[in-house]
């Protein structure tokens, strides 16, 4: 397939049937609309392109900047589109909680402005919230901003009304599905698709999914937050249910591991919510029905999000010579030496002094003649074996003598005959009035 | 009333729970000393200090916890704290005098905030540490120390305007502190006045609940401290201010149901939950919710010492990703903190007497008038929404009945609007429709828990010749509560105290 511009590759995504052995529904065919296969990686490519397209040429001529309140996929798509048209993009957000997405946006040349956290000493009379101020700067005379306004722009919904929705009907041989399940973020995709499907068949039932209130799932709003969205109309949905972050990740893992669909947590939430919704219906059915959910984006950007909530998924094999293997007794009895004795020992010139603190801290102040090997690096070295000759005595120093004790215990276990930890660390050294130098 | 009552039950730890379970004491106190009445619990403050100390211990950090005196004028609390090893942060001449008089030695006092010449003089004269906001203030202090031949004064430099690399954080501007980009001329002044000023470190205080913003500021401080060292100065500490927060509510579910209910009320899909349909900053524009909820996040699972713990464990993005505590340790810096509200968590309550309970006729919320002004119970001024606890005049608080009709209606939950005693339309204790488990009667007490941090005397006035609340200190001896007037309390007062 040949294109003149990457933007032509937006849309026409596959509709893939989920294996019934995975979801366990007997009477319902469940399909995933793979929006993750859009060129910039998400369902938002459609809305971003549809919102920006009519204004890009004019804005580029004025030397304008594309601006959006987005913490993720819309920002990503707009950053690319702006760059393709010789413009810059700025995202203003208080929801940027995924470090990989933030880094990717910076890599794409986006500027990111983060709104401040809530005031601790609250002034209830202060009515100028940061968003109001943001809108004020947008409408200042002479400003050349192209604000796509995804939460209020009808062209967001339209992209799905004319694109995503009809594609689903076409791929189901001209029939609308009986069920449509979607997560509510800007409400653009759920509203647009629902409208298109209902135009085809008013009996389509639409389930909206929101994040549980105390939870955070990227790309999904809580029910209260959904009310802040101009495109959100509760009447669109036959039901609105909440999904938790753990459930979203569970759903995501099923899609990733069993279906070969590398969906992110938003798609996982949609899958989980869909199966939960349909399971009750399925038992009562006598004829076959179909259901569609949207897989919004890909898993790769959410590794830190998943790691934080499910560290068990990232279990690594144990490595030899690891301080984690030490028993408390070994650490307690690790060879150690107090500041006064250490000074005398160093004066003999015998020990190699290893400072385990960070290079910044070492550069600021350290024991004269010491070597800096930061503790993570030291730990890494030990996995490979003893990094010192057994004939060379070693004094290990860290801030308070805790890490140095662990490493001294480990080196002893590895067979070093004369390694000691500086008791109380560099802080005790300083407090004893012993000299620290800068080089 | 529109469905189930939306309670916001206060979080009560053992001391406040026990006090509220002593209705006879609370009625005796208000009968004798009037309503409103503040009760402070000094021993709780010492316990809270221990929680902060243990977080220091977990991270192997040394340094001082400075109680932000401005959060409460109480002498009892201050004197109880003087009996521990904590410090105090004073923000006025009067607070400095109070702290010195309560027994704090100058090495345990830091002077912060806007300062007049008298405040600066007394601070320098007594050798307390002075946190300086600007270069002008630094020069003013240095000149004063030279002119009056005062001892060399320990100073902290308060900084602001920190920026993270890559992302611009639109932090609220602070009127305090020197912009970190102007730290060079500030350090030059420190060097120039080296004979009279001794730089002990740098400070910041950000008015935000965001961990990331505070982490950015701490990283910025470390960079300035490094600059200090390269100039040959010997700074020893970073003061990260306060703002650790308090968890006011017992039940996160109640908070979530209430805020969702408020959203619906503002959108008009349920009856109002406030007096006059007030939206606490939210408004309805053509069916879409606009504005920002101007409320304190009253249910905050991570608050106080736990918040400090999370902050210290937060990775420093631009300095290799180590936790901030490890960075402080590595660089051998002491950590100073200035908790106010968080240190006063569960340290007191405010008792008010019900004067009048009036039916509105239309079946709406009852009008309940209290013998207190809104500024005596300043929770609303801080955006804190929390239910008062009803302490009945007769009975033991279990709701055990009175006679006849009153008993039957009294057992039902009611919605009420709480009015103060000023002759002023807006004197509402809270604009929220408060749900109480039973109808209160004149003579009952409504007790507002956890008011010690900023909500007792910070805003109180004597408008209309109405009294400001009196304050008593209470402590437990065995199973019995003892009390004295706040000003009569010294660490020797309770039996078993230092004698």
From TrEMBL, chain B:
MF term (GO), any: diaminopimelate decarboxylase activity
Record's keyword annotation contains Flavoprotein: no
Domain Orn/DAP/Arg decarboxylase 2 N-terminal: 47-260
GO BP annotations listed: lysine biosynthetic process via diaminopimelate
Gene3D superfamilies listed in its UniProt record: Alanine racemase (3.20.20.10), Lyase, Ornithine Decarboxylase, Chain A, domain 1 (2.40.37.10)
Modification sites for N6-(pyridoxal phosphate)lysine: 70
Presence of the UniProt keyword Hydrolase in the record: no
Keywords attached to this entry: Pyridoxal phosphate
Matches recorded under PANTHER family: DIAMINOPIMELATE DECARBOXYLASE, GROUP IV DECARBOXYLASE
Identification of the protein by name: Diaminopimelate decarboxylase
Species annotation: Streptomyces viridochromogenes
């Amino acid at each position: 397939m040949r294109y003149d511009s990457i933007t032509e590759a937006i849309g026409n995504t596959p509709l893939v049937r989920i294996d019934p052995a995975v979801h366990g529904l007997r009477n319902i065919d469940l399909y995933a609309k793979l929006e993750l296969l859009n060129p910039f990686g998400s369902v938002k490519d459609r809305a971003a392109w549809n919102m920006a397209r009519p204004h890009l040429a004019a804005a580029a001529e004025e030397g304008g900047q594309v601006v959006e309140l987005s913490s993720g996929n819309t920002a990503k798509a707009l950053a690319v589109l702006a760059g393709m048209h010789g413009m810059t993009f700025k995202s203003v957000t208080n929801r940027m909680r995924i470090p990989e997405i933030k880094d990717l946006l910076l890599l794409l040349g986006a500027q990111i402005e983060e709104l401040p956290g809530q005031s601790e000493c609250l002034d209830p009379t202060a009515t100028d919230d940061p968003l109001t101020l943001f809108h004020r700067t947008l409408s200042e005379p002479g400003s050349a901003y192209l604000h796509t306004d995804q939460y209020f722009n009808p062209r967001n919904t339209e992209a799905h009304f004319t694109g995503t929705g009809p594609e689903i009907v076409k791929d189901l041989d001209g029939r609308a599905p009986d069920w449509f399940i979607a997560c509510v973020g800007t409400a653009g995709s759920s509203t647009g698709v629902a409208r298109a499907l209902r135009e085809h068949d008013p009996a389509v039932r639409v389930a909206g999914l929101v994040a549980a209130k105390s939870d955070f799932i990227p790309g999904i709003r809580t029910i209260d937050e959904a009310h802040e969205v101009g495109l959100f109309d509760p009447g669109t949905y036959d039901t609105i249910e909440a999904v938790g972050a753990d459930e979203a990740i569970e759903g995501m893992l099923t899609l990733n591991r069993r279906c070969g669909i590398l969906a992110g947590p938003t798609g996982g939430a949609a899958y989980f919510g869909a199966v939960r919704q349909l399971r009750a219906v399925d038992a009562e059915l006598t004829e076959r029905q179909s259901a569609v959910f949207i897989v919004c984006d890909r898993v790769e950007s959410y590794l830190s999000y998943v790691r934080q909530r499910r560290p068990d998924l990232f279990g690594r094999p144990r490595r030899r010579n690891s301080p984690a293997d030490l028993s408390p007794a070994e650490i307690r009895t690790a060879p150690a030496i107090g500041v006064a004795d250490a000074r005398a020992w160093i004066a003999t010139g015998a020990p190699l002094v290893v400072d385990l603190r960070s290079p910044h801290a070492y550069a600021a102040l350290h024991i004269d003649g010491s070597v800096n090997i930061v503790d993570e690096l030291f730990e890494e070295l030990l996995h490979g074996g003893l990094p010192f000759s057994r004939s060379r005595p070693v004094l290990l120093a860290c801030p308070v003598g805790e890490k140095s004790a662990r490493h001294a215990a480990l080196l002893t276990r590895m067979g070093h005959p004369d390694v000691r930890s500086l008791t109380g660390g560099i802080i005790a050294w300083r407090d004893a009035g012993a000299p620290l130098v800068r080089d | 009333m529109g469905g189930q009552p939306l309670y916001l039950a206060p979080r009560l730890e053992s001391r406040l729970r026990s006090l509220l379970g002593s209705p006879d004491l609370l009625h005796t106190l208000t009968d004798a000393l009037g309503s409103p009445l503040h009760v402070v619990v000094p021993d709780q403050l010492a316990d809270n200090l221990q929680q902060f100390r243990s977080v220091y211990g977990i991270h192997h950090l040394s340094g001082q916890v400075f109680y932000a005196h401005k959060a409460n004028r109480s002498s009892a609390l201050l004197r109880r704290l003087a009996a521990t090893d904590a410090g105090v942060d004073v923000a006025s001449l009067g607070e400095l005098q109070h702290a010195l008089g309560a027994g704090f030695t100058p090495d345990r006092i830091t002077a912060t905030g806007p300062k007049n010449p008298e405040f600066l003089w007394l601070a320098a004269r007594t050798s307390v540490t002075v946190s300086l906001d600007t270069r002008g203030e630094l020069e003013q202090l240095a000149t004063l120390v030279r002119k009056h031949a005062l001892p060399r004064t320990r100073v902290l430099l308060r900084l602001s305007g920190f920026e993270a690399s890559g992302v611009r954080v639109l932090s609220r501007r602070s009127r305090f502190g020197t912009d970190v980009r102007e730290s060079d001329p500030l350090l030059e002044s420190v060097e120039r006045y080296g004979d009279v000023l001794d730089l002990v470190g740098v400070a910041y205080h950000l008015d935000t609940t965001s961990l990331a913003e505070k982490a950015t500021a701490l990283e910025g401080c470390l960079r300035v401290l490094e600059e200090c060292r390269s100039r040959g100065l010997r700074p020893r500490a970073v003061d990260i201010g306060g703002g650790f927060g308090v968890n006011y509510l017992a039940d996160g579910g109640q908070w979530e149901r209430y805020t969702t209910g408020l959203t619906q009320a503002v959108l008009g899909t349920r009856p109002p939950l406030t007096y006059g349909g007030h939206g606490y900053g939210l408004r309805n524009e053509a069916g879409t919710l606009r504005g920002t909820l101007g409320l304190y996040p009253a249910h905050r699972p991570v608050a106080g010492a736990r918040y400090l713990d999370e902050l210290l464990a937060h990775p420093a993005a631009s300095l290799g990703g180590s936790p901030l505590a490890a960075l402080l340790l590595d660089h051998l810096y002491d950590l100073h903190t200035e908790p106010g509200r968080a240190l006063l968590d569960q340290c007191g309550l405010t008792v008010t007497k019900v004067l009048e309970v009036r039916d509105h006729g239309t079946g709406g919320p009852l009008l309940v008038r209290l013998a207190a002004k809104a500024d005596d119970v300043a929770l609303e001024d801080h955006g804190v929404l929390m239910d008062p606890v009803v302490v009945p005049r007769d009975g033991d608080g279990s709701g055990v009945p009175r006679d006849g009709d009153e008993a039957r209606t009294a057992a039902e939950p009611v919605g009420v609007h709480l009015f103060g005693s000023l002759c002023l339309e807006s004197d509402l204790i809270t604009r929220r429709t408060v749900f109480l488990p039973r109808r209160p009667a004149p003579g009952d007490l409504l007790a507002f828990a956890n008011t010690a941090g900023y909500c007792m005397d910070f805003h109180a006035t004597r408008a209309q010749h109405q009294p400001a609340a009196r304050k008593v200190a209470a402590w437990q001896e065995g199973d019995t509560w003892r009390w004295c007037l706040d000003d009569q309390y010294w660490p020797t007062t309770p039996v078993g105290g230092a004698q």
